[in-house]
Design brief:
This protein has four helices and no strands. With about 130 residues, the protein is mainly α. It has one domain. The chain is flat and about 60 Å long. The chain starts with a helix and ends with a helix.
Length: about 130
């Protein structure tokens, strides 16, 4: 029974990481589209913008093989094992938006936003 609960708990975190990584990738694609549009119209991109554009294009290229592996008919445990092996032996294949650094940063940002919302709500309630 505990194994099943632990497994479900682990899978829920895994799915949350996948969802948040996909959201980050979508944000990066939108930003990269704007940068690419600027570059095509003749504007000079800064080094930081060039680096972000390159990272996003690399991430998009690596989503294809990872997506293919996730579509293979394997159990959830098999997918988790595949991803763990890829992260250990070929970490550059994992898109940066699914990396722990960016996901941790996103979680910290969400906590700050939540604390700001609570502070505004507390302030509004105290004024009433």
């Amino acid at each position: 029974m505990y194994r099943v609960l632990f497994f479900l708990y682990y899978i829920s975190f895994f799915l949350q990481d996948v969802w948040q990584g996909t959201q980050l990738l979508a944000v990066d694609v939108v930003a990269a589209t704007g940068l690419l549009r600027r570059a095509l119209t003749g504007d000079e991109l800064t080094e930081k913008e060039k680096k972000a554009l390159k990272r996003t294009l690399t991430d998009l290229a690596s989503v294809v093989p990872i997506g293919f592996l996730m579509l293979l008919p394997v159990t959830a445990v098999g997918h988790a094992a595949m991803l763990a092996a890829i992260q250990r032996y070929v970490p550059s294949l994992i898109p940066s938006t699914y990396g722990s650094e960016r996901l941790d940063l996103l979680r910290q940002l969400e906590k700050v936003k939540e604390m700001e919302t609570e502070a505004v709500n507390t302030k509004d309630n105290s004024e009433e």
